[in-house]
Amino acid sequence: MSKVWQLEEAGQWRWATAEEAATRSWLPEPMSDVTLPLQPLSFRDCSLYEQHWIQSSRGYAKRFMPAAHVFTSLYERLLRKPFPAFKPHPLAYRQPVYYFGNHLSFVPSGTPIRPPRFTKALDYELELGAVLRKPLLNATYQEALDAIGGFVVVNDWSARDVQRSEMATGLGPQKCKHFCSSMSDELVDAQDVLPRIDQLQAFVEINGRIVARTSTANMLHGWAKTLSHLSTDEPLWPGELIASGTLPFGTALENGHWLQPGDTLRLMIEEVGEIKHQWAT
Known about the structure:
The structure is a single chain. The mean pLDDT is about 90. Helix 2 crosses helix 3. Strands 3, 4, 5, 7, 8, 10, 11 and 14 form an eight-stranded mixed sheet that branches. The protein has a four-stranded antiparallel sheet with strand order 13-12-15-16, with no helix packed on it. Helices cover about 25% and strands about 25% of the residues. The protein has about 280 residues and is of the alpha+beta class. Strand 15 and strand 16 form a beta hairpin.
């Protein structure tokens, strides 16, 4: 075991022994049959799908704000356009928007999942993730694309019932997101995916039944612009993970299929991979 802890002894600091370090390790042992394809250096999660933004807002109102849902539904039926508050923030149309997630809470596909104790509305989010293989700084669009080493499927687990109050602070998502994310078990070479990056079909499956079909089409900003923007006067490094944000219909808020104890979830993007979890009872 690596000597990763230092201890104070008689006014001096020294490396912990393997036995001492073991007593201070609180993370569970890795599962022997499944592993992450990489440990991300960081995790930036974008929101690049207008349709998801609108549909998830509708779904949130329906589940958590029933009175507002009646009003907004009537507005949309009469005017035949999205309720204004459901549309993305104006900044999201001008540039890619994102938040920093917890890159240390990723678990592999196949890990049994239990909701954290503070939520009664656990939701999944089907996303495409790009992993950098080169550093970027003030990158052109072509340099940005050339820096992508591979793609993975990402699941940004969310606690919907605490998300709204956290977002209202203006500081972005906190406990509602940071408790867990997951990714597919292989990193697919970018050159095998980029030629069709805007045409990949994707699916949400629960207990062997497909409950939602979607795709990677219609991003507000493509990968080249997104990574170029992120690198503006800010260095990006190999091993950083950048996710697209949720594909439309890729959440229970949108498709209406919430997980129940014992359910098995599969999130799939063709040519990239899949994530599979069972809700442990």
